[in-house]
Amino acid sequence: MFKIMIIEDDEKIRKIVADTLTKWRYEVVEVMEFDQ
C-alpha cells in the first residue's frame, strides 16, 4: 500500500481525488486547515 498526502484548498476536488486514490488502495491523508 502507498501513502499520499493531498494538499488542496478546494474541498470538492480534494474529495474526488481522495476517493479515487482510496479505491486504488492508497492510504490518503487530506490537509484541510491551511492557517496552521
UniProtKB/TrEMBL annotation:
InterPro entries, per the entry: CheY-like_superfamily, Sig_transdc_resp-reg_receiver
Gene3D superfamilies linked to this entry: 3.40.50.2300
GO terms for biological process, alphabetical: phosphorelay signal transduction system
Top-level division of the source organism's lineage: Bacteria
Record-annotated Response regulatory domain positions: 3-36
The name this protein goes by in its record: Response regulatory domain-containing protein
